[in-house]
Amino acid sequence: MKRYLVERELIQNNIQVLQKKAGSAVIWAVLKGNGYGLGLLPMAETCRAAGLDHFAVTEIAEARALREGGFETEPILMLQPTADADEITALLPLHVIFTISSIEDASVLAGLAAQAGVTAEAHIKIDTGMGRYGFLPEEMEKITPVYHYMDTIHVTGIYTHLHSAFCDKKATKAQIESFSRVLAALREAGIEPGMAHILNSSGVLHFSGAAMDAVRVGSALLGRVHGGHGLKRVGYCETQVEELKWLPKGHTTGYGAGWKAKRPTRVAILPVGWYNGFGCEMGNDLFRFRDCLRRIAASLRTMLFGKAYYVTINGKRCKVLGHIGMLHTAADVSGIQCSLGDMARVEINPLMQKGMDVEWR
Fold this sequence. Notes:
The protein has ten helices and 19 strands. With 361 residues, the protein is an alpha/beta fold. It has two domains: 8-222, TIM Barrel (Alpha-Beta Barrel), CATH 3.20.20; 236-360, Lyase, Ornithine Decarboxylase, Chain A, domain 1 (Beta Barrel), CATH 2.40.37. It has a nine-stranded mixed sheet, with no helix packed on it. Strands 4-3-2-9-8-7-6-5 form an eight-stranded parallel sheet. The protein has a two-stranded antiparallel sheet with strand order 12-13. The radius of gyration is 24 Å and the shape is elongated. The model has no long low-confidence stretch (mean pLDDT 95).
């Protein structure tokens, strides 16, 4: 038995913290990735019950699920821009707010909206350093025509995305200044930009003074950001002890015999492994010189001071022994009361979890 548990009251706590940080700014609840792995509709319902009624997604299926799931009139911002005619045709009846990040996006959207006899609502995206989607700040000659000349597009907002709000104050301030210059240039041209938003989860927590008209929060709803800030971590795996055994001194466990008993050791086996997201980590996909140095330093710290994974069984912290298997984990329970069927808690990032049902409490 294993399941992933989500406690609504923790999300409600996090929303209250974010509402205080955001002040009067509108909060867009970002529910991409199936509500960050917890379920799109229950996440949206929990947010709405706590007072959030603006949502942001990336997939057509997510927008459709919200509309069909009872969110008929709430604003839904499509964060993923597109110039694909089929995608735009599918999105128009859902009355989403499109993201326009290029003149191509705008042209295709304007043409298809005209064919459908509707006016499409949109936000403009500016690339102030993320390097993915958006007009560059100096491309005012491409931005202003979307406001001025495309009659079937109603631009109601403009935004950018911070790339290092959690770690680089200088870079973040530079992005805020760049975006502010775009807003000033639009106003000087006689254009009201609409709802301006720049802060993401880390931005709200570290740069709340730059909230502007709105903010976008996703990972902060789950309390999985740097620094705590009064947020509570949401989501964990609950499972049971499936096997108990004493291993004699010298016995090994796991692939590669990664652990050898120095003394007789009582071991509990849990039916959870890396396939379910346990022990999986993100962020090791950069290979710059400084990134490699950081990993070397981290490895040295691990060698000198030790590092281990832990699970909680009967309220007691228990060390994981050997490699985490695909669907099994061994834990040392020598010093605690433990029986077959006892409950265990395994910390797993909701974005990494799979292979088990998600239950809300």
